[in-house]
Design the sequence.
């Protein structure tokens, strides 16, 4: 599904060069639930951003579904992210000026989907995460767990093949975290969605089908 | 997408209201400046109806109040001018020469209408001096001066005000001893300046007391010839004095009185608009820097660079449209209420040009910050708290 080959990421300033990822090779199979663990600053989020085409590697190849993304234009990358990927972030990244329903509709706004269809699909996604009764609310009126469920609804509304989750339970207490994890496991098992999750939490990582550990930008397991 | 933009704008209505107000005020200023410019340009584009080049305005002082002497003196001047080969034509005139600061108004009556008009009392050769062309009828001759009913030549504007669609030629205005018969119509006669709108003006034969003079000289007449003619005329009588001014310079002076304030207004307006543009630019920059996370999210879920670019430009255009709608509502009152008696199309063009200017201004101000927003790397934008 996703294949990373000898990925290297170097951050350069005028004085310092930081190696964030060092020769990472990784393959994620279709339907897999992979977790990435490691201490802070080891390059977990960088790796996830590269997998989600939000960032470019300094070296190495990425191919998704057998297709190398090296020569993808901005338009093609955007279309790919829109149709194949769903993102969940630790700090939710909801747009506070839009009600919940509109936040969930966002990915469909960049597809040729009619307004009524957008509303129907977003409503369905919100019902899946148990927020069918919070559609008119604004993010500021929701708890952290509810916000993360809205973010999950936004990630799944376009029916993506892969969900990339960057510490989705990081800002939540354990009960809320377990609820979110439950939703992700269900998505993986029932819908067959491939999920790659970055986490600090060993317990959460144990619930996934495979674990990859990073240390100082290198893969250690 | 438009509905989506409306929702975003509505949610930030307080801060957007200030931007809308700024655009509304800018529109009103631009509307005033454009309407004034269109009004003056349209007037300027109209033919003036007279040729002021190589024409001198001569202000003669015979140093006498006696009309009988003035008749004799004027004949002397005529004889002298005829002897000069440089002089092509000349005409005595009432003191309200074209482009002078004098004015002489009279009322003309016809079928209970009483229309006020500028009146110029001139000689038959006045038409040759200013190269006036008649649209209808004829100019008066020496023979007409002796007629019981005085001949009258009027501008098209006065003809329409006094006679409407009727044929004016042969019509008589006034009563008893003050009767005048229309014998000719000139299309236009801008006696004030080149920016003057078509106005009422009438020409009748001069009396004996007028001592101002218009002289058309041959092209290339030297300053020495001018001095010679001036000297010869002033030496015709005792204590005579005269002053010669060139009519095209008088015109330039009168034109300057109109266009200099317009130019000052344009500079002030340009400065105001520049400040508005800087303000808009700053506000948009700040807005975009506050919305980096949103940009990152949008990029992550499928927005292209051009989606981001057009979203921010689109939001600004929607806000501008609100400001303009309010502005247009107020501006439309001017043509509807016929304010200042200006042609409706002048106001409508003023509105159109002001709308175009505001949109161009807004797009220009929004383009650079929006372009910067579109270039933000999604991973970087998402990383910012």
Sequence:
């Amino acid at each position: 599904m996703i294949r990373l080959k000898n990925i290297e990421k170097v951050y350069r300033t005028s004085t310092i060069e930081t190696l964030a990822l060092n020769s990472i090779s990784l393959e994620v199979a279709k339907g897999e639930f992979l977790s990435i663990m490691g201490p802070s600053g080891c390059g977990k989020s960088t790796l996830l951003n590269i997998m989600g085409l939000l960032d470019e590697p300094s070296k190495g190849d990425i191919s998704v579904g057998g297709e190398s993304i090296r020569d993808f234009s901005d338009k093609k990358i955007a279309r790919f992210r829109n149709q194949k990927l769903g993102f969940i972030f630790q700090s939710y990244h909801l747009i506070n000026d839009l009600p919940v329903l509109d936040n969930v509709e966002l990915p469909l706004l960049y597809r040729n989907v009619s307004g009524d269809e957008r509303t129907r699909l977003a409503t369905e996604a919100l019902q899946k995460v148990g927020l069918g009764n919070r559609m008119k609310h604004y993010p500021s009126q929701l708890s952290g767990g509810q916000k993360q469920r809205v973010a999950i609804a936004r990630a799944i509304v376009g029916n993506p093949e892969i969900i990339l989750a960057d510490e989705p339970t990081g800002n939540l207490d354990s009960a809320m975290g377990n609820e979110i994890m439950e939703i992700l496991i269900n998505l993986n098992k029932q819908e067959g969605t491939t999920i790659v999750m970055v986490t600090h939490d060993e317990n959460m990582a144990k619930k996934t089908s495979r674990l990859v550990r990073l240390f100082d930008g290198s893969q250690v397991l | 997408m438009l509905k989506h933009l409306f929702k975003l704008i509505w949610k930030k209505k307080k801060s957007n209201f200030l931007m809308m107000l700024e655009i509304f005020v800018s529109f009103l200023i631009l509307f005033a400046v454009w309407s004034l410019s269109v009004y003056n340009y349209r007037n300027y584009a109209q033919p003036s109806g007279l040729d002021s080049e190589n024409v001198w305005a001569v202000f003669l002082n015979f140093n006498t109040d006696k009309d009988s002497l003035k008749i004799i003196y004027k004949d002397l001047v005529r004889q002298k001018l005829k002897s000069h080969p440089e002089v092509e034509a000349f005409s005595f005139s009432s003191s309200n020469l074209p482009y002078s600061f004098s004015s002489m108004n009279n009322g003309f009556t016809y079928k209970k209408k009483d229309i006020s008009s500028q009146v110029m009392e001139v000689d038959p050769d006045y038409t040759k001096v200013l190269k006036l062309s008649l649209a209808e009828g004829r100019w008066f001759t020496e023979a007409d001066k002796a007629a019981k009913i005085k001949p009258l030549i009027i501008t098209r504007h006065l003809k329409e005000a006094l006679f409407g669609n009727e044929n004016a030629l042969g019509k008589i205005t006034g009563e008893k001893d003050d009767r005048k018969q229309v014998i000719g119509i000139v299309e236009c006669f801008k006696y004030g300046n080149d920016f003057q709108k078509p106005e009422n003006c009438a020409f009748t034969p001069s009396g004996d007391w007028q001592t101002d003079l218009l002289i058309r000289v041959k092209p290339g007449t030297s300053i020495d010839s001018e001095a010679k003619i001036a000297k010869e005329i002033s030496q015709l009588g005792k204590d005579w004095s005269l002053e010669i001014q060139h009519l095209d310079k008088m015109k330039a002076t009168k034109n300057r009185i109109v266009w200099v304030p317009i130019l000052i207004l344009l500079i002030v307006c340009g400065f105001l608009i520049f400040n508005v543009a800087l303000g808009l630019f700053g506000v948009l920059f700040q807005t975009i820097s506050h919305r980096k996370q949103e940009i990152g999210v949008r990029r992550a879920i499928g927005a292209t660079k051009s989606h981001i670019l057009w979203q921010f430009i689109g939001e600004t255009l929607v806000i501008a449209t609100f400001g303009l709608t309010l502005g247009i509502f107020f501006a439309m009152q001017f043509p509807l209420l016929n304010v200042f008696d200006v042609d409706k199309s002048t106001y409508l063009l003023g509105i159109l040009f002001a709308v175009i200017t505001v949109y161009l201004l807004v797009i220009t101000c929004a383009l650079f910050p929006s372009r910067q927003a579109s270039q933000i790397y999604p991973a970087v934008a998402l990383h910012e708290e």
About this structure: Residues 2-219 of chain A form a domain with the Rossmann fold fold (CATH 3.40.50.300).
